[in-house]
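Onboarding guide, step 5: your first structure request.
Type a short instruction followed by the sequence, for example:

Predict the 3D structure of this protein.
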Amino acid sequence: SRQAGASRWADALKASRFFAGVEDARRAMDSGLTDKAQAIAEDLVRMNYEEPQPALEVLAEIYEQKGRFADAADLYSQAGEGGTGNETRLRSRAARGRALAAAAQGDDFMAEQEFHNGLMIDSNDPWIRYEFARFMIRKGRRVEAESLISSLSQSTSTDAVYASALVHQDLGNALAASALIDRIPEAQRTPAMRSFAIGIKTESAIQRAKAMAEVGQKTGAISALRQIGAMSALPAARRAQVADALFDLNDTAAASS
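The system replies with C-alpha cells like these:
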C-alpha cells in the first residue's frame, strides 16, 4: 500500500507539472514570447502525459502563429483523437490548418476543398470562416467573403463578432469593423481585441474626418483628429496615422507635434 501511495503522489505531481506547464505556455504565447511558448509546449508533449490534448492544442496554436500550418493540422488531429469532447472543434481546426498549408503552397483548389470540409465539420467555428474569407479577399472574391461572414456579424459570440470585425478591416470597412468591436463589452475583451479596437477606431475616425473635409467641414475634421492624437493610450503607429491625416488636411503644426 505504501508503494501504491507513492505512485499516486507521483501521478499527482506529474499532472500538476503538466497543467502548470500548459498555463505557462499560454502565458508566454499571449505575451508574444512564441519561442519560449514553443519550447515549453514541446517539452510537455514529450512528457507523454496520459491525456496530452491540452499540450497538443497549445503547440498547434503556436505552430499556426509561426506559419507551420501542416504541423498544426497534424497536432489538432492528434488532439481530436483523444476523446476530450472537443473532437468537432479540433477536426475543424485540423481542416483549417490543411487549408492554410495548401494555400501557402499555392494549391488553391485543395485549400478551398479543405475550407469547405472544415465548414461542414463545424459551421459555427468563426475562425475557419475568418481564414476562408481572407483567402477569398486575396483572390479578389470580396462579395463571397462578405457573404461568408454575414452570419458572424449577427452572432452573439465574442469570437464570432471579433472575427467579423477583422475581416471587415481587411475589406477596408473600418466603420463597420469599429461598430462590431463596440459590441464586445470591455470586460470580455482580450488584449488583442483592445489593441484592435484602438487601431480600428483611429482608422474609422480618419475616414470620417476625411469625409467631413470633403464636404467643407475641414475645421471640424481637424479638431476631431487632434482630439484622437492627444489620447495618451494611442500607440505610436496610430499616432503617426493621425499625423499623416492632419498633414493631408494642411494642419502641419499639429501633424509635427
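Each response can be followed by summary notes, for example: The chain is about 75% helix and 0% strand.
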